[in-house]
Specification:
Bound molecules: zinc ion
Oligomer: single chain
Largest sheet: 8 strands, parallel
Strand order of the largest sheet: 1-2-3-4-5-6-7-8
Helix content: 40-55%
Mean pLDDT: 96
Distance between the termini: 12 Å
Length: about 270
């Protein structure tokens, strides 16, 4: 069994064939999907998708840093309600984005820190987004990991999570693993020039990896420029298997076990 831990199937890119996409992926062994509903307008849609596929789809609910300037306290109360739904398996995606001009570091950290208590309150892990800026000084991974380290210093604030679409260096990966976080590996792992990422993932090891697509974005090498979807998970898994020198079933089993351990069995 393969588990897709990060999809945005509510994106309008799937309006014409959402159900067919989920069925096609299931036919290829991708039998569970974590849908990321990370904008207030997507929460109800995520819940509806999980209701339509009760044995296949669960949701992460949260506010992406892209909405740093627009979240109001009434929406936070609404997020609380979604985290309490039976289909909720995680908070997310939440974090820091220095690539787009979405708010200062302080503003983005404030949004993150209003959401992190939900992990403890609902006993759920978090799906983290980190995207570095255009200069080396704009290091979202370093700032996020430092904030999480401070946050989890108190035993009551301990949480688990995943650094989704991991694109940092080994120092970032190491810091994440030390916090008990997993690395989300997606199509970027298959890109021709991404040798450093492959080396980082090798060092992290199969016990610390979950599979994801981040669809409709970031298709693997074979489909660059096209729409991504969960049916590309087997291609990412196969490349991981080659990279680690193990069979495809080993990658499937280990990453599925990691995903179930993180999100719970569904
Ligand atoms: Zn995403």
């Amino acid at each position: 069994m393969l588990i897709e831990t990060h999809a945005h199937l509510n994106d309008k890119a799937f309006d014409a064939d959402r159900k067919e996409v989920i069925a096609r992926a299931a036919g290829l062994g991708v039998s569970k999907i974590v849908e990321i509903a990370c904008a207030p307008g997507e929460w109800a849609q995520g819940e509806a998708l999980a209701a339509a596929f009760p044995d296949k789809v669960r949701c992460a609910f949260g506010v992406h840093p892209e909405y740093t300037k627009t979240l109001t306290s009434s929406l936070m109360a609404e997020l609380d309600g979604f985290m309490a739904k039976p289909c909720a398996v995680a908070l997310g995606e939440v974090g820091l984005d220095y690539w787009w001009d979405v708010g200062t570091k302080e503003e983005q950290l404030a949004l993150l820190e209003t959401q992190l208590p939900l992990c403890g309150r609902f006993s759920k892990p978090a799906v983290f987004h980190a995207r570095n800026g255009k200069t080396p000084a704009q290091n979202a991974y370093a700032d996020l990991l430092e904030a999480l380290k401070k946050w989890s210093y108190r035993p009551a604030n301990k949480f688990r999570g995943v650094l989704h679409c991991f694109s940092g260096g080994w120092a970032d990966a190491r810091a994440g693993l030390d916090l008990g976080l997993l690395l989300g590996v997606n199509g970027t792992f298959t890109y021709k020039n991404n040798h450093d990422l492959r080396e980082t993932v090798r060092k992290a090891g199969l016990d610390n990896i979950v599979l994801e697509t981040d669809c409709p974005y970031l298709p693997p090498q074979s489909a660059r420029g096209k729409r991504n979807d969960p049916s590309f998970i087997p291609e990412i898994a196969a490349m991981l298997a080659t990279h680690f020198g193990v069979g495809n079933s080993v990658v499937a089993d280990r990453t599925a076990a990691n995903a179930f351990e993180l999100f719970g069995v569904f």
